[in-house]
Amino acid sequence: MFSARTHFRGAHITMATCSISSDSTEEINDPGAAPYGNFMNYYTFNPPENRLSLIPSTLLQDLGYSDGHRTTLILDVGCNSGDLSVAFYKHLVKEPVCGEDSDRSKVHLLGFDLDEALIQRAQQTNPLPSSISFIPLDITTDTNQLQDYLNQRSCSRFHLSLCLAVTMWVHLNHGDSGLLQLISRLASLSQHLLLEAQPWKCYRSAARRLRKLGRSDFDHFKMLKIRGDIAEHAREHLERHCGMELIRSFGSTAWDRKLLLFRRK
Which pairs from 246-255 meet CB under 8 Å and 24+ separation? Predict the structure, then answer.
């Protein structure tokens, strides 16, 4: 996945690579073993609660998606094994009380990752297959499947897209242009975008651990010109070039990563 959850066949996801130091965890987090962030046991060291504790359960209503007659579509980029996708869905869409109509028939979540083994695990353990679906996809090379998904549901964009701990892996594997292309693609597909970008210290840690294994640096690491405050670079690109605006910060996770919410102007 472009995951550190996960990412694209060239660069995806998440990471604890900058904040966990024990030998056993380093082996799990090893960027040499998961150079796209597609860690097999990611949620054992970064459980969904780390993010959900910062996000209000009323988020969909706050964004105006409370009309029970309208379909609401959520996209999870680099979903890894789907643990956060399912937890996020349950956090926002409550199980109906006896006798009440269920919002779950109108809210659908699509998660994707480039790692087919992780997607297979997500599919096999999915407790809500009528509301949540998972597909293997490398967004750096293919957005047709996402557009087809939208067309089949008569929607022009996803109402809310999640891009959590994915940007670094795309950036390291696809360079500055790959990072900006990812952000632009997600903006074009989304009405709202929840973004968590890894800070620069995570890049240095990932590269250092790769060298520790006696391997070469990530192809683009030394040539990257976008450095420093990656979240701020992403915000500037979204606001200047993608027609989006920052409307809320939910604070920072335990790993000091900002959760930023953008909307289309």
Answer: 250/54, 250/55, 251/54, 253/50, 253/51, 253/54, 253/196, 254/19, 254/50, 255/16, 255/18, 255/19, 255/46, 255/50
pLDDT digits (tens, 9 = 90+) for 213-257: 777 778 899 999 999 999 999 999 999 999 999 999 999 998 889
Picking from 30-39, 51-60, 71-80, 135-144, which range would have the lowest pLDDT averaged per residue?
Answer: 30-39
Sorted by sequence, the CB contacts under 8 Å of residue 119 that are 6+ apart come out as 1, 79, 82, 112, 113, 134, 135, 136
List, in sequence order, every beta strand (DSSP E) within 46-98: 72-77
More confidently predicted of 40 and 131 = 131
DSSP letters spanning 207-262:
HHHHHHTT-PPPTTGGG----S-HHHHHHHHHHHHSSEEEEEEEEE-TTS-EEEEE
- CB environment 141-151: b (16+ within 10 A), e (fewer): eeeeebeebbe
Q: How many CB atoms lie within 10 A of CB 9?
A: 19
Higher-confidence residue: 195 or 94?
195
- What pLDDT does 10 receive? 37
Instruction: Calculate the CA dihedral of residues 238, 239, 240, 243 and round it to 10 degrees.
Output: 80
Q: Are 67 and 114 in contact (CB under 8 A)?
A: no
* Amino acid at the residue 147: Q
Token pair in block for residue 243: 């027609």
- Tell the residue number behind the tokens 């557009």, with chain if given: 147
Residues with Cβ within 8 Å of 179's Cβ and at least 6 positions away in sequence, in order, are 167, 170, 171, 226
